């Protein structure tokens, strides 16, 4: 799909430009801009209405009578690249990011950052993420054409929603990747890097995740039933509402992780480090917590019935 066809929408407002003449109000007065030698005609309202806190809006606010120097024709001079300003101006008109195929989106992003258009920056980043998304077939082609001794890097790639179940994915770098709603059930992810990866509502049931680095990963609502999480690092990870029932989690690091309302029934947590973790309303029924560190953990409303190894006060004292 061409980038021109990818449109990120916001709440649209009626365009303030009119080919027949300027509006009567002062804020709608027509003005000319000379951006890097290219001339643009627009209204003050267009420049200030979309993102009123941006730098370009402040430049042309009603109380700013002369935002910059003017050329011989009276156009306000802006020393930036005019080629990338057209998508900026179109966004200010209708609230969408639309670029022709030949326009480098990175250049538009730099201009959006310069003009302080924070919402536009977010939309461009969403488009960039969509541009680098892969299908299952793309992924399998890369996987099968690579040597098992070669480090595979899928850092920052969008794999949201695709089926990667039962695959051998050992030692792959998924740092910052989007794997939300992805089917990874029974996959072998041993030794993978999932640092800061997004795995919201992903299906990881029966997956091997031993020795995985998943620091600060987002696993909210993920299905991790009967997984092997031995020595997995989930420090500061978000596991709110996740299902971990029956998983082997010996030596796992869950320091300062968010496990609020998570289902951890019958998990094996020998020597697990859960210091400072949020275990509010977490179901720990039937867990083996031998040697687990729960110092500073929030156990408010947690279910601790039928524990194989009782939780001693020495484990939870700060």
* C-alpha-based Rg, rounded: 26 Å
Strand order of the largest sheet: 2-1-3
Estimate the helix proportion, in percent.
10-25%
Strand count: 3
Overall geometry: elongated
Q: First CA to last CA: what distance?
A: 55 Å
By DSSP (H or I, 4+ residues per run), the number of helices equals: 7
Into which percentage range does the β-strand content fall? under 5%
Order of helices and strands: EEHHEHHHHH
Low-pLDDT regions: 1-25
Classify the secondary structure makeup into a structural class: mainly alpha
Commentary on this structure:
By secondary structure, this protein is mainly alpha-helical. The protein contains seven helices and three strands, in the order E-E-H-H-E-H-H-H-H-H. The protein has a three-stranded mixed beta sheet with strand order 2-1-3. Strand 1 and strand 2 form a beta hairpin. Helix 4 (105-114) runs antiparallel to helix 5 (118-131).
Produce a short descriptive summary.
With 318 residues, the protein is mainly α.
Element layout with pairings:
Layout lengths: L29 E6 L2 E6 H6 L5 H5 L16 E3 L6 H10 L10 H10 L3 H14 L4 H9 L168 H4 L2
Parallel strand pairs: 1-3
Antiparallel strand pairs: 1-2
Helix pairs in contact: 4-5
List the main descriptive attributes of the protein structure presented here.
3 strands, mainly alpha, 18% helix, 7 helices, three-stranded mixed beta sheet, single chain, 318 residues
């Amino acid at each position: 799909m061409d980038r021109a066809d990818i449109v990120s929408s916001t709440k649209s407002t009626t365009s303030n430009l009119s080919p027949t003449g300027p509006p009567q109000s002062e804020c709608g007065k027509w003005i000319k801009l000379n951006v890097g030698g290219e001339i643009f005609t627009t209204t003050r309202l267009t420049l200030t209405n979309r993102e009123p806190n941006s730098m370009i809006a402040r430049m042309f606010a009603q109380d700013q009578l002369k935002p910059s120097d003017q050329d011989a024709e009276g156009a306000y001079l802006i020393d930036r690249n005019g080629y990338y300003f057209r998508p900026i101006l179109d966004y200010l008109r209708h609230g969408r990011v639309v670029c022709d195929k030949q326009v480098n989106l990175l250049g538009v992003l730099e201009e959006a950052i310069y003009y302080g258009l924070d919402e536009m920056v977010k939309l461009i980043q969403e488009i960039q993420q969509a541009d680098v998304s892969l299908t299952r077939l793309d992924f399998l082609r890369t996987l099968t054409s690579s040597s098992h001794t070669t480090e595979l890097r899928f850092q920052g790639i969008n794999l949201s929603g695709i089926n990667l179940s039962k695959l051998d994915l050992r030692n792959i770098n998924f740092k910052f990747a989007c794997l939300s709603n992805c089917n990874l059930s029974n996959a072998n992810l041993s030794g993978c890097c999932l640092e800061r990866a997004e795995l919201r509502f992903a299906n990881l049931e029966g997956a091997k995740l031993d020795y995985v680095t998943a620091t600060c990963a987002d696993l909210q609502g993920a299905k991790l039933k009967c997984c092997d999480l031995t020595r997995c690092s989930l420090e500061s990870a978000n596991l709110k509402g996740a299902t971990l029932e029956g998983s082997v989690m010996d030596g796992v690091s869950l320091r300062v992780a968010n496990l609020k309302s998570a289902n951890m029934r019958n998990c094996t947590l020998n020597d697990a480090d859960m210091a400072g973790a949020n275990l509010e309303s977490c179901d720990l029924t039937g867990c083996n917590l031998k040697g687990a560190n729960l110092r500073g953990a929030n156990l408010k409303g947690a279910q601790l019935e039928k524990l194989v190894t009782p939780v001693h006060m020495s484990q939870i004292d700060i």
